[in-house]
Amino acid sequence: GYGSITPRTQAGQLTTIAYALIGIPLTLLTLRSVGVHINAFHFYLIRSTHRKHCKNENALMKNTSGLLLTVIIVAVVMFFSVTSWTFTEAFYFVFVSCSTVGFGDYV
């Protein structure tokens, strides 16, 4: 995972377990709720784009891929601008984070 801070005492370890038992399900519920809204917006974009511009399924795939690439590029540019990382380091961080590899070497 990201970082190297870990609880060292028994009280800290038990608190971490209790926090995770409550926090993980709450996070999953929140992510599900956010995902439902993002999914609805995504389908709205696809439907409106499909009606206006897509003559076939290949065009729909290109538009969806373009949207994904745009999100990745925006994230890379954001991290490149906000941190002191190079463009390659920012791209590496975005890729490792989005693919859930998460080595933790850039945080």
From TrEMBL:
InterPro entries in the cross-refs: 2pore_dom_K_chnl, K_chnl_dom
Transmembrane intervals: 17-45, 66-87
Potassium channel domain boundaries: 1-35, 67-107
GO cellular component: membrane
GO molecular function, one term: potassium channel activity
Pfam families per record: Ion_trans_2 (PF07885)
UniProt keyword list: Ion channel, Ion transport, Membrane, Transmembrane, Transmembrane helix, Transport
Cellular compartments annotated: Membrane
Membrane topology, record value: Multi-pass membrane protein
Chief location: membrane
Full protein name: Potassium channel domain-containing protein
Lineage start: Eukaryota, Metazoa, Cnidaria, Anthozoa, Hexacorallia
